[in-house]
Amino acid sequence: MRPQNGWRAAALLLAAVLIASPAAAESDQIYQWRDENGVLRFSDRPPEEVPEGNIETAPEIPYDAEKDRKRQARTQEEIEDYIEKGEMRRARQQEMQRREKQRQQREQQRLEAQRQAEEAQRQAEMEAKKNRKSWAKRQRVRSSEGGSGGSDP
């Protein structure tokens, strides 16, 4: 799922930062050269197929612990922001799902109430029809007995 991918990406980013920091501090020299296409290349090892005169060593850049600490703090903040945004996105999705579920429940209740009202209407119509037949039958019996045939006494 997506939440696991977010955590995985954050963990990989943090691992890459932590792995790259000591490696850059350990290398003694940085070599630079232009390849056959004229592209400037950099490496901590001299290239194997470039003529010796085409290789220069880059000037050494001293390690700055304070800058490194700030960079790592900034990276940590970015990771935390990324995680927080993912949590907010999940919370919004859960709220949307909750609202949709409520809407579906209300719709089901409305349909059930409508079905019950229609059933009650049918029952009332059947009862009215039954009463009309019963009244008509009583009227026929009275008229065959010689009664007035008009109404109930």
Report on this structure.
The longest helix has 81 residues, at 65-145. The chain is mainly alpha-helical. Helix 1 (2-26) runs antiparallel to helix 2. Strands 2-1-3 form a three-stranded antiparallel beta sheet, with no helix packed on it. It contains two helices and three strands. The protein is 69% helix and 7% strand. A hairpin with a 5-residue loop joins strand 1 and strand 2. The chain has helices at residues 2-26, 65-145, and strands at 31-34, 40-43, 55-57. The protein is rod-shaped. The mean pLDDT is 81.
Structural features:
single chain, about 150 residues, mainly alpha, three-stranded antiparallel sheet
Across the major sheet, the strand order is 2-1-3
What is the ordering of alpha helices and beta strands? HEEEH
Structural class: mainly alpha
Specify Rg, calculated over alpha carbons: 43 Å
Shape: rod-shaped
Uncertain spans, ≥5 residues at pLDDT below 50? none
Mean of all residue-level pLDDT scores: 81
Query: What amount of the residues lies in strands?
Result: 5-15%
Estimate percent helicity: 55-70%
From the N-terminal CA to the C-terminal CA, the straight-line distance is 80 Å
**Major beta sheet, specifics?**
3 strands, antiparallel
Number of strands: 3
Q: What is the helix tally?
A: 2
